[in-house]
Design goal:
The chain is an all-beta fold. The protein has two domains: about 20-155, Jelly Rolls; about 170-299, Jelly Rolls, CATH 2.60.120. The protein is built from two helices and 19 strands. It has helices at about 130-135, 280-285, and strands at about 20-25, 40-45, 50-60, 65-70, 80-85, 90-95, 100-105, 115, 125-130, 145-155, 170-175, 185-195, 200-205, 215-220, 230, 240-245, 245, 265-275, 290-299. A five-stranded antiparallel sheet has the order 1-4-9-6-7. Strands 2-3-10-5-8 form a five-stranded antiparallel sheet, with no helix packed on it. The radius of gyration is 20 Å and the shape is globular. The two termini are about 20 Å apart.
């Protein structure tokens, strides 16, 4: 399964008193000239989760291309929110947790939420770094200011109904993986849908007919793009989990050429849908989502 490096602009929320030891650090002097809307001190998400802000930090790209927050995680999940002065520009900022890149925040309006893979009591250093420093695909002449906030959140007391599962087209024009350039017709051959947290697996058995198969994993709901999906085949270890693609515009951009095999060969694939953090699985289970996993054959 393939996904773009940019995971979209993300917001993360928190509840009071669940994260302690917050302090700020950054590569250069703090930037305070950001002129966009301030990050809210607290808010309630559309699925009922209650967020409270822990800390805010700024950076100016390219003058001050890096900034960092250090937190000690408490008893609630931690999310991030990012906002910049050029929505729609395609500007990106990479996010590292304890030195490991976990996602990239894209400048867009409105901001979206992103969850961090953390556990209670863990000390984390969250570093935000300009995409130009990380070598991510981005225009080199963009100059913008960013505002980032860390939040903790509490789930609603009662989970709300999940949104309808994403409905994917029977055919679409996607990337041609046979020639490596141009486009090719992609035809739907199988799909499974479910609602989170009740439905967490989907299994497919496929026969190759001389064409590549592409995989689409699409999730709906406020946390849809933060659920993790892994893939396994009999006799092989389970693959690394990657974020589900948020339902909406561009949801099929990365489908195509994920599976290939000799003509007549059969393969069984099992997909697992999980929360971003096993330590906070009970919190994530109270936030509804739905998913559709579809297999397309390149024509």
């Amino acid at each position: 399964m393939k996904r773009a490096a940019g995971a979209g602009l993300l917001a993360i929320a928190v509840a009071a008193g669940v994260v302690s030891g917050v302090h700020l650090a950054h590569d250069r002097a703090a930037v305070t000239s950001y002129s966009g809307p301030p990050m809210p001190a607290s808010f309630t998400a559309s699925d009922g989760a209650a967020y409270r802000r822990l800390a805010v930090i700024y950076l100016t790209d390219p003058a001050h291309p890096s900034a960092a927050l250090t937190l000690t995680v408490g008893s609630a999940p931690v999310d991030l929110m990012g906002s910049c002065g050029l929505p729609g520009s395609g500007a990106l900022t990479g996010v590292e947790v304890n030195g490991k890149i976990v996602t990239a925040i894209q400048c867009q309006d409105p901001p979206q939420l992103i969850g961090l893979p953390v556990h209670p009591g863990q000390k984390i250093r969250i570093t935000f770094t300009s995409a130009t420093r990380l070598g991510l695909p981005i225009r080199q002449d963009l100059r913008t200011t960013w505002q980032f906030a860390a939040y903790s959140w509490q789930p609603p007391a009662t989970a709300r109904p999940a949104p309808a599962a994403p409905r994917l087209p029977r055919m679409f024009s996607g990337r041609n993986t046979t020639t490596g350039h141009g486009s090719a017709l992609q035809k739907l051959v199988a799909s499974r849908s479910g609602t989170w947290p009740g439905d967490r697996t989907a299994t497919f058995t496929l026969t190759f007919h001389g064409h590549d198969y592409g995989i689409a994993t699409i999730c709906a709901g406020l946390i849809g793009g933060r659920l993790q999906v892994s893939q396994e085949t009999p006799g092989s270890p389970e693959g690394e989990a990657i974020p589900c693609t948020q339902a909406g515009p561009g949801e099929l951009d990365n489908v195509g050429g994920d599976l290939s095999g000799s003509n007549g060969a059969r393969i069984t694939l099992t997909f697992h849908i999980r929360a971003p953090s096993t330590y906070f699985a009970a919190d994530w289970a109270k936030r509804p989502a739905s998913w559709t996993i579809a297999i397309y054959e390149e024509q």
